[in-house]
Design goal:
By secondary structure, the protein is an all-alpha fold. It is built from 13 helices and no strands. Helix 4 packs antiparallel against helix 5 and helix 9 packs antiparallel against helix 12. The radius of gyration is 20 Å and the shape is globular.
C-alpha cells in the first residue's frame, strides 16, 4: 500500500491551485487577529471583521453557481485568485475603517468565485471516491499552513506585517497563472449559454427538495454546528492564548506554525480513514470529536502548556476536517446531477457557519469570557450531533 492515498489528476490540479492560494493567504491570515489587536481593534470588532469576510461568501455563492453555467469555472476561479491579491494590497495602504471593512467584503466575493468554481469542477468530474477527493481538497490549506506560517513568521518578526502582504500579492499572481494554464483548457461539463434565471430557480428547487430529506438534512445540520464552532475559534482562538495564557506574539506565531505542520502530517492518515467511512458516519464522528475537544480546550485553557495545546487542537481540528470532508462528499454524491448548484450550496455552508459563529461569539464573549465560549460551543455541537444521529436512526 503506498504511503499517500490515491489522487486523481483533476483532484491534484484543483488541490495544488488551492494550496497556492492558501499559501499566499496563510502567510498572514493566522496572525491576522494579532494584526487587528495591534491596530487597536476591540474583541467585537475582530468578530465583525470575520463576519464581513464570510457572510459575502454565503451571499455570492449562488450567483457564482449561476455564472458557472455560462462562464468557464476556471475563469471565475482566476478572477477570485486575483481578488485575494487585491485584498492583500489593500491591507498595505488602507487606513479608513469603512474602506477596511469593504476590503473584507471583496475578499469574501473573491473566495466565493474561487471555491464555488473549484467545487463545481470536482463535483462534475468522474471521481472514484468523493470523500477522498474532498479530503485532499480540504487538506490543501493545512499543507499550506505547514509552511506559510513559518515563512510569514520570519517576515513579520523581521520586517513587520506589511512585508507579508507584499509577498502575498506576488504569490497570488503566480497562483492565477498556474490555475489558468493547468485548468483553463479543461471543460468537464459543457457551458449552457441559454441558462437563465428560470432554469436557475428550477435547479435550486430540485436541489432543495433533495436536501430536505433526512438522509441529507440531518448530517448537514451536524456539520453546520461544527462550522459555528469554527467561527468561535477563527477570531478568538489565537487571542485566547494572548489574553488568558499571556503568551507573547512571537510564541503564538511559533506554536501556530508548529501546529499546522503537525496537522499536515495527520491529514494523510485522516484521508485514508475518509476512504473507508460513509459520509454520514464521518460527519457524526468528526462533529463529536470536535465538540468534545472544544469542551476540553475551554475547561483547561488557563492550564495549557505547549504539548497539551497541540494535542487538544490536533484532535479538535481533525474532527472538523473529517466532518467538513464528509459533508462535501455527501453533497457531491446526492446532488451530482446539479454540480454547479451543489458547489454553490457546499460553499455556502462553511462561510455562513463561520460568519454566524464569529458574530455570535463577538456578541457574547464580553460576558461569557473565553473559557465558557469554547465550552458551551463544544457542548452545543455534541448535543446537536447526538440528538440528530439518534433521531435519524429511529
Amino acid at each position: 500500500m503506498p504511503f499517500f492515498p490515491k489522487i486523481e489528476k483533476i483532484t491534484r490540479d484543483v488541490t495544488i491551485s488551492l494550496f497556492l492560494l492558501m499559501f499566499g493567504y496563510r502567510i498572514f491570515s493566522l496572525y491576522f487577529p494579532l494584526y487587528l489587536a495591534n491596530k487597536g481593534f476591540s474583541l467585537p470588532q475582530v468578530g465583525y471583521t470575520y463576519l464581513f469576510i464570510y457572510l459575502p461568501i454565503a451571499f455570492f455563492s449562488p450567483i457564482v453557481g449561476f455564472l458557472n453555467h455560462r462562464i468557464k469555472p476556471t475563469t471565475l476561479a482566476v478572477i477570485g485568485i486575483l481578488g485575494y491579491g487585491i485584498y492583500a494590497l489593500g491591507m498595505i495602504f488602507i487606513k479608513n475603517l469603512a474602506v477596511f471593512y469593504l476590503c473584507q467584503i471583496v475578499l469574501g466575493i473573491s473566495a466565493a468565485l474561487f471555491f464555488v468554481s473549484m467545487r463545481a469542477i470536482l463535483i462534475s468530474s468522474p471521481l472514484e471516491n468523493y470523500n477522498r477527493a474532498f479530503g485532499w481538497f480540504y487538506s490543501a490549506p493545512y499543507y499550506a499552513g505547514a509552511v506559510a506560517p513559518v515563512i510569514g513568521a520570519v517576515f513579520i518578526l523581521k520586517f513587520g506585517f506589511i512585508s507579508v502582504f507584499i509577498f502575498s500579492v506576488a504569490i497570488q499572481i503566480l497562483t492565477a497563472i498556474y490555475c489558468f494554464f493547468k485548468l483553463g483548457r479543461k471543460e468537464i461539463k459543457p457551458l449552457d449559454k441559454y441558462f437563465n434565471f428560470k432554469s436557475f430557480s428550477h435547479n435550486y428547487e430540485i436541489v432543495f427538495q433533495k436536501i430536505k430529506k433526512r438522509d441529507i438534512l440531518f448530517p448537514v445540520l451536524i456539520s453546520f454546528s461544527v462550522l459555528l464552532l469554527s467561527g468561535f475559534y477563527q477570531g478568538f482562538g489565537i487571542l485566547s492564548l494572548k489574553d488568558v495564557l499571556y503568551w507573547s506574539q512571537n510564541t503564538i506565531i511559533v506554536i501556530t506554525a508548529m501546529l499546522c505542520f503537525l496537522f499536515s502530517l495527520l491529514s494523510i492518515y485522516l484521508i485514508r480513514r475518509l476512504e473507508k467511512l460513509k459520509s454520514e458516519k464521518s460527519i457524526f464522528q468528526g462533529g463529536i470529536i470536535a465538540g468534545i475537544f472544544s469542551i476540553l480546550y475551554g475547561a483547561f485553557l488557563p492550564f495549557l502548556n505547549f504539548l497539551s495545546f497541540i494535542i487538544i487542537n490536533l484532535f479538535q481540528s481533525g474532527g472538523s476536517f473529517i466532518c467538513d470532508s464528509g459533508r462535501s462528499g455527501l453533497v457531491s454524491q446526492k446532488l451530482k446531477e446539479n454540480s454547479e448548484e451543489a458547489g454553490a450550496i457546499d460553499t455556502i455552508f462553511s462561510p455562513l457557519g463561520t460568519a454566524l459563529g464569529a458574530l455570535i461569539s463577538g456578541i457574547i464573549i464580553g460576558f461569557l469570557g473565553y473559557q465558557l465560549l469554547f465550552i458551551l460551543g463544544g457542548v452545543f455541537v455534541v448535543l446537536v450531533g447526538a440528538t440528530l444521529s439518534k433521531v435519524a436512526k429511529n
